[in-house]
Amino acid sequence: MAKRMLLMLGVVIVLLSSLGFFKFRQIQSAVQAASSFQMPPEAVTTIVAKTEQWPAAMTAIGTVEAVQGVTVSADLPGTVAKIEFESGKFVNKGDVLVELDTRQERAQLAAMEAQRDLAKLNYSRAQQLASQGVISKSDYDKSSADQRQTEANVAELRATIERKTIRAPFSGVLGIRKVNLGQYLAAGAPIVPLQSLDPIYVNFGVPQQQGPQVKNGRTVRVSTAELAGHVFDGHVTAVDSLIDENTRNVQVQATLPNKGHRLRPGMFVEVSLNLGSSSTAIELPASAISYAPYGDSVYVVTDMKDKKGQTYRGVRQQFVKVGSSRGDQVAILSGINPGDEVVTSGVFKLRNGAAVQVNNKVKPSNSPAPNPADS
User: Fold this and answer.
1) Quick check: helix, strand or coil at residue 29?
2) CA-CA 20 to 30 A from 86: which of 13, 65, 243, 281?
3) Shortest CA distance to 195 belongs to which of 128, 129, 244, 263?
4) With 80 as the cut, is the pLDDT of residue 275 above it?
5) Distance (Å, rounded) from C-alpha 137 to C-alpha 100?
């Protein structure tokens, strides 16, 4: 019985040893295979870096503002008697917009003119009597003062009547009227917006680093998606003396001709500001740049060697200094050299030393002035 137990134990030990050895060989083979495994190359597109003339310009987001813009309002309280304008029409400076009811003031004016005429007669008689020594000097002075006071009262009433005729303070385009016939208007009540649209202002911010390059007279080009194909040229007319402490931007104002009144106050526009003479830079598609908090980089394709000494096409991450942009392009100021082959798409899936396969049948856009089909 004991011999049989020992024999069975020996058989189990041999079996377990055989299985352990077999599993060990399997794991060893898997480790060797994993150590020699190489990821398949990633498909990418590339561009050969070359220097181009890069205009010294920057882009910014601007807002259109009228050179002159007010909401015409009532100077004095009164009831609307006439409305002499139509909403949305052009008016010239001095055109009558609204007339308020002045019947009471005109009646008061007639009475005051009668008092003025009487005061003139009394003053004339007082002059004759004073020259003859019939009346005292004080009576003569009182008659003179009464005459001057009635003249002033008449002028005041005429001014009040004139102020109740509301005129356009400058030439421009009217908005939508806010009053109706017979409506009582309090002093300061709005009547209609009025905007001077030609020329027109565009206000935009410039980073403080580029502020010293912005000077009066610099040319600007303004465009907006709502007016595709239309570009408005103008020039810088004012630079703010303060820098916004929240954004660290300096506000710039440009003046543009606006024939046809296509640009309207409040519109969102894109501004291209000329900062001087052009310089040389390497132009790359924006898709080639890998942006990160610790620095912007690109991937350069080059010949590399694996652990076995075999040559393959791989990528090297290269940190770069990025300049301004225009359209699809970004200016690279330093970090790469002309002739470097730079990855333009697929950068998000790459790492330093990764194998790549270049396929340039379909490449990302690299135009300074793109025109998307759905724009």
Assistant:
1) helix
2) 65
3) 263
4) no
5) 45
**DSSP H helices in 49-99:** none
Please indicate, yes or no, whether residues 153 and 84 belong to a single structural domain of this protein: no
CA distance 71 to 86: 15
Tell me how far CA of residue 53 lies from CA of 9, 145, 326, in angstroms: 86, 81, 13
Amino acid present at 35: S
Number of structural domains found in the chain: 4
Of 23 and 298, the one with more pLDDT: 298
Residues 6+ apart with CB under 8 A from 133: none
- Give how far Cα 91 sits from Cα of 84, 175, 201, 371, Å: 11, 11, 20, 38
Does the pLDDT value for residue 35 go beyond 80? no
CA 113 to chain centre: 58
| Residue 221 tokens, joined | 């080009």
**pLDDT score of 74 more than 80:** yes
Looking at the DSSP bridge assignments, the partners of residue 52 are 281
Residues whose CB is less than 8 angstroms from the CB of residue 88 and which lie 6 or more positions away in sequence, other chains included = 173, 174, 175, 176
How far is 16 from 130, CA to CA, in rounded Å? 149
End-to-end CA distance of the chain: 94
In a domain? residue 21? no
Return the DSSP state at 234: E
Residue 129's H or E segment, with its range, is helix 103-132
| 231 alpha carbon, distance to own chain's centre | 16
Tokens in use for 253?
Answer: 């104002």
Asked if residue 7 is part of any domain, the answer here is no
Reference 363, options 4, 2, 44, 60; nearest CA is 44
Q: Residue 159 corresponds to which amino acid?
A: A
H or E element, residue 4:
helix 2-35
Q: Which two tokens stand for residue 327?
A: 């359209």
Residue 120, domain extent: 102-163
